[in-house]
Amino acid sequence: MTAPLSELPDHVPADLVRHFDLYEPIEGDDDYQTWFTKLQAAGTPDIFWTRHNGGHWVVTRGEDFDHVLKTPETYSSRINVVPRERLMPIVSKPIQLDPPDHTRYRNLLIPAFSPKAVVPLGEKARALTIELIEGSLARGRCEFVSEFARRLPIGIFMDMVALPTADREQLLEWVDEMIRPTQVDSLEAGNQLIRYAFDQLQERRAEPGSDLLSELTRAQVGGNPLQDEELVGMFFLLLLGGLDTVAAMLSFIIRHLASHPEARRELIEHPERIPAAAEELMRRFPISTLVRVVTRDHEYKGINFREGDLVLMQTSAHSVDDRLFNDPLAVDFERKVVFHGTFGSGAHRCIGSMLARVEVRVFLEEWLKRIPEFRLKPGQPLRVEPGMVLAMPRLELEWDITESRP
Fold first, then answer.
1. Which residues cross the membrane (predicted)?
2. How far apart are CA 194 and CA 330, in angstroms?
3. Where are the domains of the chain?
4. DSSP string for residues in 198-225
């Protein structure tokens, strides 16, 4: 359920208003990223206003995506969700901070996502992938979202922060409601996550270990230890990111390979192409939504922005922009891409992007080795639940058991 339509502000011309509801589910035969490019192809303004979710600007092109994310003095991260009433009462550092404060807190997380740290996490991801596949192989079918996408990256993350496996389903329920709300005017799920984060923090303070949350309890910024509220805000952010983003992306990637046997067989016959293929698939299926708040009245591309306006950017605005990529909806494993927007841009570019790349690559290597000929279960329309992260609630796959090879 979304909020009522807002009034049109005086500074927004009526010809820039379009229908766009971030939380409106979409169902059909296409994928969400293709639907998004139809905005670009239909003569939609590069930047338009929607009256949904409190009213805000929507960026549809990569050039403007980069401009907003690389100009934090004009477009601040302090409000990073629509409608603004969904902003939690606790600051999630570093994502709600702007440079230079953002950098000081981001630096605390960098060691956990460095190449040195990611290598062993990749091996854990490989072992967990093999275990999950072997558990489903003989059945000849699976519901990919619940049996794989919401187990592999989430299992790695929960190990990083030493959370009990028994908490997984409850945490996923709260995170789902925060990122893709069924009740836009309710913050109960977020409040539950904050209480959970506070309880975990107290446990780490009492008995610190070697996990990431314990490390943060020992961290300092400017020579001062982090306060409870700062730590809860950082852990809250880690829960939202670690429990949802890679899981959502994996589902889109596997759905594409299930419905494009020629692409799948190319990787089966040439596994050395998987790293490049993983990067191209991540470019093609971006899943995140970013929001900024305007800090001062100004004009950009003939549009009058006012202090307090919210600006929404889906990563699709960059990654599937036909002004930046030739035939952007095509999945081309030979494509030479220097940069794409799937992991954001500017100072806030996703700190976990290296781990995400490793998890996707490892999963493809092991899945294609063991289940080479898989397909979508017939009669299964695609349903996408948009929000701050796009996700598919279900994805039914099947394969011939005789064609599977361990």
1. 231-254
2. 41
3. 14-161+245-403
4. HHHHHHHHHS--SSHHHHHHT-EETTEE
Residues in the chain: 406
Q: Which amino acid type is present at position 318?
A: H
Answer for the pair 124, 156: CB distance below 8 angstroms, yes or no: yes
DSSP state of 82: S
Q: Which is nearest to 341 in space by CA: 333, 349, 331, 330? A: 349
Distance CA 272, CA 266 (A): 10
**Which is nearest to 286 in space by CA: 182, 389, 132?**
389
Within 10 A of 177 (CB to CB), how many other CB atoms are there? 19
- d(C-alpha 37, C-alpha 52), whole Å: 20
pLDDT for the residue 37: 81
Structure tokens at 35: 């639907």
Token representation of residue 191: 């409040």
Q: Is residue 71 packed enough to be buried (19+ CB in 10 Å), middle (13-18) or exposed (0-12)?
A: middle
Cα–Cα distance, 354 to 264 (Å, whole number): 23
Question: How confident is the model over 292-341, as pLDDT tens digits?
Answer: 999 999 999 999 999 999 999 999 999 999 999 999 999 999 998 889 99
Residue labelled with tokens 């592999």: 152
CB-CB contact of 242 with 161 (8 Å) = yes
The helix (run of H) or strand (run of E) holding residue 310 is: strand 310-314
Using the predicted structure, report yes or no on whether residue 60 has a pLDDT greater than 70. Answer: yes
Answer yes or no: are the C-beta atoms of 140 and 398 closer than 8 Å. yes
**With bands split at pLDDT 50, 70 and 90, how would you rate the model's confidence at 130?**
very high
Domain 14-161+245-403 belongs in CATH node 1.10.10.10: no
Sign of torsion over alpha carbons 153, 156, 157, 158: positive
* Tokens 């279960």 found at: 377
Q: Is the pTM here over 0.90, yes or no? A: yes
Q: How far is CA 152 from the centre of its chain?
A: 15
Q: Say if strands 298-300 and 303-305 run parallel, antiparallel, or are unpaired.
A: antiparallel
Q: Is the dihedral of CA 187, 192, 196, 201 positive or negative?
A: positive
pLDDT confidence band for 255 (50 / 70 / 90): very high
